[in-house]
Specification:
With about 425 residues, this protein is of the alpha/beta class. The protein folds into three domains: about 1-110, Rossmann fold; about 130-360, tm_1862 like domain (pyruvate-formate lyase- activating enzyme), CATH 3.80.30; about 365-425, Nucleic acid-binding proteins (OB fold (Dihydrolipoamide Acetyltransferase, E2P)). The chain contains 13 helices and 17 strands. The chain has helices at about 1-15, 40-55, 65-70, 75-80, 95-105, 150-155, 160-175, 200-205, 230-235, 255-260, 265-275, 295-310, 335-360; strands at about 30-35, 60-65, 85, 110, 130-135, 140, 160, 180-185, 215-220, 245, 285-290, 315-320, 365-375, 380-385, 390-395, 405-415, 420-425. A five-stranded mixed barrel has the order 13-14-15-17-16. The longest helix is centred in the C-terminal third of the chain and has 24 residues, at about 335-360. The two termini are about 35 Å apart. The relative contact order is 0.08.
């Protein structure tokens, strides 16, 4: 989602006559697009701003964009006095006007509105990948998870009209894009604001029927709004990739309640059961937080047991990070940092073993891959399967450029994080 925000910013500026340079050192304008979902990411922003200012910042104009900009607002000018522009994600379409204010003598300019639909696609978006394109279908979040700053930085949920999404998908297909990824902070909370009134499952299916589109993905889902009809759509339409990212955050119902996640472990597992009952083998990935305030060893053991019960194809795992303006800041029983680190290490090693076991089951299978590039160091092409697994394969066809093509490859080796194989003629 942040990468796609950057595409929107680049496209907006190019349309105004700006040119993009190869390295920050060559730029007159330096934009930092930021994420504040974790404290570490936020700290990096100010560290890099300061470092770049020292090394190559003379005569340059600095701007901070995205969630840290929305969260910190004008406080950024105090933390990094050399920053001239602060702009949240809903105001990217206003960047040209904001830059005019700077050129007109404005010393510190902000764009921090959250009440616009301008975070959706525009014809100015500069796509960074010639084969895969992102489409934002919903912005913001109406949930109130105790640890999460997103509702504050992205605002309330705003869904895009279905006709607009389908039109964008058709235009992308006509331009040669074959894979679409539908984006939203809670993508399956989508509710069509037009008279058609489509839900997410309907929109997903219809995007998968746009001529020229060969793959459709989506991220990220909230379990509370994940319905059986989404699985039915994946089962019925082979264009829809058989991969679901379904963040769980914890395997303990007690911690889920403290997190204000709006579902229990049992309810989450009901959704996993829908996915596992599908006719197509659907890969399942998730997000997990360890060390949330009040998490006991018993709670953590329940999360470890959940890994075994579900058998995730991969996970994104993090230590709990206190964020401003979140209810979790008021919770007692903060977990010690060394306990967080220990639990995270145990969790990741357990998941590594699960991934080794699951990937070894792929040996001998033939998979269709969208070729993403070439690894000169290994002499292998980099492919991605419908189940979102990386499959690096050897190709005997000489210097032919396979990037963007769909090919078949047989899995011959398996590691914890990727597969390796050979091209199948």
């Amino acid at each position: 989602m942040n990468a796609h925000d950057s595409e929107k910013v680049v496209g907006t500026l190019l349309a105004q006559g700006y040119s993009q340079v190869a390295a920050p050192e060559q730029a007159d304008l330096v934009f930092y697009n930021t994420c504040s979902i974790r404290d570490k990411a936020e700290q990096k922003v100010f560290s890099r701003l300061q470092q770049f200012k020292k090394e190559s910042g003379k005569g340059k104009t600095f701007a901070v964009l995205g969630c840290v900009a929305q969260q910190e607002g004008e406080r950024i000018f105090e933390k990094a006095p050399h920053v001239s522009l602060v702009c949240g994600s809903a105001s990217y379409a206003k960047l040209p006007q904001l830059l005019v204010q700077l050129d007109s003598g404005g010393r510190r300019v902000t764009g921090l509105d959250l009440d616009a639909e301008q975070a959706f696609e525009t014809s100015l978006t500069r796509r960074g990948n010639p084969h895969r394109a992102y489409i934002t279908i919903i912005e913001g979040c109406d949930k109130s998870c105790a640890y999460c700053v997103v509702p504050f930085t992205r605002g309330p949920e705003r869904s895009r009209a279905c006709e607009s999404v389908l039109r964008e998908a058709a235009e992308l297909a006509a331009a040669g894009y074959t894979e679409i990824q539908l984006l939203g902070q809670n993508v399956n909370s989508y509710r069509d604001p037009s008279p058609a009134g489509w839900d997410f499952a309907t929109l997903l299916d219809r995007v998968g029927r746009v001529p020229g589109i060969r793959r459709v993905r989506f991220t990220t889902s909230h379990p509370r709004d994940f319905v059986r009809e989404i699985v039915d759509a994946i089962d019925a339409n082979p264009v829809l990739c058989n991969h679901v990212h379904l963040p769980v955050q914890s395997g303990s119902t007690r911690i889920l309640e403290s997190m204000r996640r709006l579902y229990t472990r049992e309810q989450y597992m009901n959704r996993i059961a829908w996915i596992k009952a599908a006719r197509r083998p659907i890969a399942i990935t998730t997000d997990i937080i360890v060390g949330f305030p009040g998490e006991t060893e018993q709670d953590f053991e329940q999360t470890l047991a959940l890994l075994d019960e579900v058998g995730y194809d991969s996970i994104f795992s993090f230590k709990y990070s206190p964020r401003p303006n979140t209810p979790a800041l008021q919770l007692r029983d903060q977990v010690q940092e060394e306990d967080k680190s220990r639990r995270l290490s145990i969790l990741q090693e357990k998941q590594r073993q699960i991934q080794i076991r699951l990937n070894e089951q792929e040996l001998g299978k033939v998979e269709e891959c969208l070729v993403e590039g070439f690894n000169r160091a290994t002499g292998q092409w980099i492919g991605r399967t419908s189940r979102n697994k990386t499959l690096n394969f050897l190709y005997p066809g000489g210097a032919e450029d396979l990037a963007g093509k769909y090919v078949l490859a047989r899995v011959t080796r398996a590691g914890p994080n990727s597969l390796a194989g050979e091209y199948v003629n």
